[in-house]
Amino acid sequence: MSIIRFVNVNKWFKQLHVLKNVSLEIAQGEVVVVCGPSGSGKSTLIRTVNQLEPISDGEIWVIDQNVADHRTDINALRADVGFVFQHFNLYPHLSVLDNITLAPIKVRKQSREAAEQKAVQLLERVGLAHKKDAFPSQLSGGQQQRVAIARGLAMEPKIMLFDEPTSALDPEMIGEVLQVMKDLALSGITMMVVTHEMGFAREVAHRVVFLDHGEVLEQATPAEFFSAPKTDRAKQFLKQILSPMH
Amino acid sequence: MQLDWSSIPRASNALWEGFQFSISLTAFAALAGIILGTLLAMARLSSIKPLSMIASGYVNIFRSTPLVIVIYWFYVVLPFIIGRPIGAEHSAYVTFAIFEAAYFCEIMRAGIQSIPKGQVYAGSALGFTYGQNMRYIILPQAFRNVVPLLLTQTIILFQDTSLVYVLGATDLFGAADKIAHRDNTLLEMYVTVAVIYFVISFFLSRLVKHLHSKIAIIR
Ligand SMILES: Nc1ncnc2c1ncn2[C@@H]1O[C@H](COP(=O)(O)OP(=O)(O)O)[C@@H](O)[C@H]1O
Ligand SMILES: [Mg+2]
């Protein structure tokens, strides 16, 4: 049974056809990596899952609810779907702890004590318990992104979405964030990850989806996709990504 | 010309009372104006067209009309609306709150627009409603970003409250004006109140400068 299901999804920005008849299913507990050239629609695709980006037509079913249906309680659904952004988007006016506890307290109506206890556990999990009273501006990019992941996990989501979580980071910080994501992948949560980190895909992804010009051109296991891409465009893309120049 | 400063100390009680009214009028108009202005700013930025049109109409009307006319205007119109005489002081409270809201609206609008879109997305993605996003994420940051502008506007507001003397209200300037005419010490009185307005405005603007460097959120 799939937990995310795209059915003939189309998306236009004015005249620009950004998602073209996308159909895609992601099973519960699956880790799916989405890759493709810049501008191919990866961000748009992943943002449609929780309707940060509304779609033009088609259906997207997430945890058995059609997100495009106006009767769906989209805020309740979003609370069950974590989203990690390329640029972290932590709240600069709040401490690390408050960044993490705000939504559990205000959306989930948890008590402050319960939310803080959980937040500290999550900070330990991402290796940042000692930073709980720091402000985002006092953290490195890699630390901010780990806090952002903890913030998402604090809602105990059923699905975690990642949009290029390491591409805004200095190279020496990519590893620490990927490590947190790998641990998470092994915990059994459903993950949809837009990334060009092919090492991550090889190690923990169950499936790789290749997007080009808004179309899903290939879907395969990482082993298949990396060793024997079927389309020329995927071959070309992999050549660029894996070249030492990159 | 012979100046007689001896009447100033004797006038200090009356000046003090006028001063208290000026301050409470300023404080009330700033507080109410900021609250109303924030609501107007949210309306102006709303995607609901009629709402944003009403808000921008409001702002344009008050920003294009001289304050002294608005003061008279409300003084005449308000009794009709509430059905009984309202008095110069109450009329001044209402007028300044409504008039200043137009200016505070523009400041808060700039503040809200200064917050990156990603902040809203982050809140929405966690399940925040529009109201929660505003209350916990956008407005606290927007407000902090514009505190210096809000205070600067409040200093202007404090000076502008002297216009209520046209209604015969006894604010600081009104009190001074009355005594000046009674004792025939026009110049002495006007100089004295000018110094008071200057000292307060000057130190408040120094405070603004000081706050500016302390309060800005580091990104
Ligand atoms: N808000 C927007 N308005 C108009 N065009 C957009 C908007 N967001 C993205 N696009 C366009 O849609 C296409 C896909 O963008 P995006 O989903 O960000 O691609 P990717 O994440 O794969 O780089 C690009 O051509 C981009 O310029
Ligand atoms: Mg992108």
Automatic annotation (TrEMBL), chain B:
Q: What superkingdom does the record give?
A: Bacteria
Subcellular location(s) per record: Cell inner membrane; Cell membrane
TM spans (from-to): 20-43, 64-86, 92-112, 187-208
Say if the entry is tagged with keyword GTP-binding: no
Which InterPro entries has this protein been placed in? AA_ABC_transptr_permease_3TM (IPR010065), ArtM/GltK/GlnP/TcyL/YhdX-like (IPR043429), MetI-like (IPR000515), MetI-like_sf (IPR035906)
All residue ranges annotated as the ABC transmembrane type-1 domain in the record: 19-208
Keywords noted in UniProt:
Cell membrane, Membrane, Transmembrane, Transmembrane helix, Transport
Q: Name where it mostly resides.
A: membrane
Name the PROSITE patterns for this protein. ABC_TM1
User: What Gene3D superfamilies does UniProt report for this protein, alphabetically?
Assistant: MetI-like
Task: Establish whether keyword Transport is in the entry.
Answer: yes
Q: How does it sit in the membrane?
A: Multi-pass membrane protein
Membership in a protein family:
Belongs to the binding-protein-dependent transport system permease family. HisMQ subfamily.
Q: What is this protein called?
A: Amino acid ABC transporter permease
